[in-house]
Every structure is written in C-alpha cells, then in structure tokens.
Model the fold of this input.
Amino acid sequence: MSDAQSAHNDFSRPKTRSLVSPLNRRRLANFRSNKRGFWSLWIFLFLFVISLFAEFIANDKPLLVQFRGDVYMPIFESYPETVFGGDFETETEYRDLYVQELIEANGWIVWPLIPYSYDTINYDLPVPAPAPPSSENWLGTDDQARDVVARLLYGFRLSVLFGLILAIVSSILGVIAGAVQGYAGGVTDLIFQRFIEVWSGLPTLFLLIILASIVEPSFILLLGLMLLFSWTALVGVVRAEFLRARNFDYVRAARALGVSNISIMYRHLLPNAMVATLTFLPFILNGSVTTLTALDFLGFGLPPGSPSLGELLSQGKANLQAPWLGFSGFAVLAVMLSLLIFIGEAVRDAFDPRKTLQ
Amino acid sequence: MADVETTSPANNASQVNTKAPSPLLKVEALKTHFPVRKEFSSRSTSFVYAVDGVSFSIQKGETLGLVGESGCGKSTVGKTILRLVEPTAGRVRFEGTDITALSRREMRPFRQMMQIIFQDPYSSLNPRMSVGNIVGQPLIIHKIASGQELEHRVGALFERVGLRAEQMRSYPHEFSGGQRQRIGIARALALNTKLIIGDEPVSALDVSIQAQVINLLMDLQEERDLSYLFISHDLAVVEHISHRVAVMYLGKLVELADKREIYINPLHPYTEALLSAVPTPDPTVRGKKRILLEGDVPSPINPPSGCRFHTRCPLAESQCRIEEPVWREATPGHWVACHLR
Done:
C-alpha cells in the first residue's frame, strides 16, 4: 500500500482550481438540485446531531447544580448525596423530592428539557403505567413507567449508530471481498461466488434468532452476528466493476509499468467501484436499521432495558389500549427510514452517469 | 543492467548471441493459446491458437512493423512480449535474458525498459487521475523521482511530446484524441525505455494527427535510440515508420523482410494481396491489378491444415493443403513461409 499512498502526490490536487474534481462538483450540484433528498439530508443530520447530545436533552440528572456557592455538573461527574447534605454515600438521586429541597434551600438546579433518561422510572404516575401523554411525559410512558420521548431519542441514536457501523463495516468487507474476487477472476471467483450464493441463501433472521438465543446478545455481539450476513450485500456490484475494469487499457498499461496488484486495485479499480458503494450505502443503512428493529420487536435483539424502537413497537402491540406507544414508535421509524430512502435516491441519481455526463 | 545479470547469470552466458550485433528483443517460437470451453458440460477444452509459433528479432534503434488483418494475433504478440498475457510456449529474450521464465519481482527491472502504447487513447488513460499523475506514476512506482524533481521530469516529458507543462493538472477528458495519445507516449517514455510496443497507436486518430504522432515517434526514436514493435493494419503507415516489416496471418508469420524488399518484391501471395489493397493516391495508375481474396479468415480455434492460407490462396496446390510450409530465409534477410516461392 505504500506505493499507492505515496503515489498520491500533489498532482492529484490541482493548484489552480478548487479541491473537488469537476465531475464531483457536477454530482454535488445534481444532489443539491434534488430538493427532497437535499432537505432530507439536512433534517436527518439535524435529528442525528440532536440525538448525539441526548444526554443533555433527556436526562434524570440536572445539567447544572449550584449549591453553597459551588457549581456542580452531575452529567459529567457523580457526587454522593452527602455533598448536598443528604444521608447516603451513594450517588445523589436528583429526582428525589427530599434531595431537591435540600439543594434548593442553598442554591438552584437547571434541569434538561426532558427530566428523564431512557431508563428512568417515573414513580409518581397518577395512573397505572402505561400512562397517557401529559405535560410531564409528553408522549406518555411505556408499560414500565419510562418516558417515551426519552426512549425515542436514545433509541433513534442507537438505531442510527448501529446501522451506520454495520453499513460501513459490511461495506468495507464487501468491497475487499468483491475486489479480490473480481480482480483474481477464474477459479477464485467461481468458488467464492458459489460460497456467497449458498451463504446468502441462509435464512438470516432465523439464524440470528437461534444465535441470539444461545448467547446473550450485547451491542457488539449483535453487530458481529448481523455482520456475518450483511457483508455480502456489496460483493456482487464491486466484483462486477472489477471484472469489467481489470481489462481496461489503463489497467494493462499500469501492469506493463510493473505496478503492483494491490496498487492497481487501490488506484485504478477502486474509484470505479466507489460509486456503486456510495450509492448503496444509504440503502444498506436502512436495511440494517430495519433488521435491528425486527429483532428487537421479536425480543431477540439488544439486551433488555436498552432504548430500542423495536421494543417500543412490541410494547405498542402488547398494549393496544395505549396507542401512543405504537404510534410514536411507528412515526419515528417511518420518518427515519423515509429520510434515508430519500437521501439514498438523491445520491443514486447524483452519481448516475447519464445525468452527470450530460 | 547489473541486476538483470545477477538474476540468471548461468543462462546469460549461453544465451548471449555471439554474432554482432545481438538483438534487443528476440522472440523464439512464441505460442499463446487461449482455452475456450464449447459447452457448459463438455470437459474437452479447445483452444484459440491466437499466436502459434512466431519468431523474429528487433535490433536496437529499429522499428519492426507487424501487419495483418483483424484477429490474426498481432496484438496478442505484443501483449505476450510484455507478459500481459502469459505465453503457452516459446521464449522472449530481452537483451539476452529469457523473460518468460521470470517471476513478477524479477520482471520489474524489465518493466522499466519495455512499454506499450495502446490503440484507444480514450480507454488507456484512467479518467479519474490527472494526466500529470498518469505520466508520473511510473516514476513513483519504480522510486525514480519524487516531489520537485518528479514534477520537473513530468513537465519535461510533457514538453517533449508537444504538450504544455501546465496541462499536467488537467484530466484526460479535457484532451483531444491526439493529445491523449501524446500523453500515452509520455507515460511510455517516463522510464529508461528501450522498447516500445505500439499496439495500433495511430489507427484511432485522424490522418493529419496520425502524421504528427508518427513523426513524434520517429523523432523520439532517433533521439533515444528506441526500438519499436509497431503493430498496425495500415500498410501506408507501416511503410513510413518501419525498417523491417513482418506479415502475420492466423497466428503465424508468413513473411518478414526489409521494408523496401517487401514492398517491391513480396514473395508470399498473402503479402501480395495485402499490398495490392493499399489505395494509391495517383489517378494515373488507376488500372492497377487488384488481388481480391475470397472468403473470411478461418477460425483460429480450428485452423486449416497445411498452409493456413491455402483456403484463400489463389495459387494453392495440393501440397499446400497437407504440408505446413517451413519458415525459411529465401534471400538474405527475407524470410517467408510458402511452398511455392
């Protein structure tokens, strides 16, 4: 790879022109001109960034506490109750009314917008859980008296992060596998291709359910399990690109120059395959989110207690008398998946050579 | 060349041609066959006999024109010499060393000395790389130059092939066909090239541009003592650039001679037919007799027995159908494979 990296000298960056190549500039313009996709991207990014800061928006700990002239930030550090004049050495329960009175006697508290975290149980519900929407819990609570808004916020973040990691890692693996297969061709290609056909013929969801019932799934483990089946998504396209491009004259010229195979793959062939990869990425992300939700819905997904959209949906199914559970879960999923599809369509159209080369 | 000798010192001693001058490139009985499977189930594979026993040599500073109709294996010869395609049998000796037996690593020093220029100037340049990067790539790969010196050398190459040095930041799509072919030539010249294989390097260009590119190639040859294997089907171009001309038919050479000799005194009936097909830009000789060959080139999967040309040869006799003609030196320096001449 050293060849490949050192070969990217300053020729690749025109000094007199902008950093982006003309082709990419046209693609960017194409993407922008697709209003729906462009706005979807901004809305999605806005929601995602917001959810990244979920701890500052929905938390059962105050943002700031001022007590006897000292300022405390409970989100970053845990303080024992004794600091505020309480009785216990354990971490302060800020939601406890007794503690709140202790602090407010000698200072003040700034609460986040939603004073519940995803696992905070609201013990002061006037009605049995699940409680309907109220000024306290904007979208009500689930059947364990946890705030739905907080769970949606954290659940959105978890789903997107999970999907993003899965999509990126499986793209990398898929590109490598497809590249090797397409470049080598012949027997390697044949064997690999048959293996992938068999592998992708396996009933993924059932296998995941079986595997998840054998081992207790954690975030990482679930990611690994789903990776086992999702890496094949890109192999076909990348392989086809490499098979096509390896006989181009400029690849022949590079071989005649004695360029190493890895370097040829990296410099001459991979850029061709990147279009396919980028185009597929939003759709793979979408698929990953859906699979995770499906597993959670069935109860074979993330460990119990995790903020998960699928779990909320299954609660909605179990509590039809509490429609706010099902509706809010559905709305968030529908918005997220639609936004991703709109972005994916815009990316796909932007990279379409029939449009960019006009 | 020190590293070349160390790779195979034992071979070298016996291989070096004692006759002076020893050729830069010597191709001996080269064969390249491609397997083709007829049906999915059938186990027997047949072969395309793309190159089937070709021998020639190229001296330093010489241009050998290789002509023949489409599908006769001209390009495969060029690609096999560079080992872009692996030969089935035979040898390719470059400065006395048999390069067909070398590993990838051992091949590297030779890669610096043999280059190729392709027919299609549109597909031979990576559209995603700036042309400066394309031309500079060989220098980087072989760790010859970097940084300021690299830029300097690439600039010099650009000016040598008739482009401006500032153009090195542009991308291939910003150039015309002729300019692209000049970039391809600059890439081929970037290393200390001794042999350039031109795989129909001008046939995709306009006639006026063809002349410019050919003159550039000839100037460069004089300047750097380059050798060319010039593959083409355009006899007029080959006549202009070549010192010697080889004629190929269905995977085999049928005639090889000095340029003047072959154009004035062709021995093989196929060569005669080819030459008679060259249009003459002189209206007074319009009545010239033309030899029209009948039928198509036979399939290289199942070539005819005996002389491969007998199915279309106007002079064929019974002997031609049975016995394969030997490749012999009819007059000094004039090789031919025909029973009748």
About this structure: Residues 1-19 of chain B have pLDDT under 50 and may be disordered. The first strand of chain B starts at residue 25 and ends at 37.
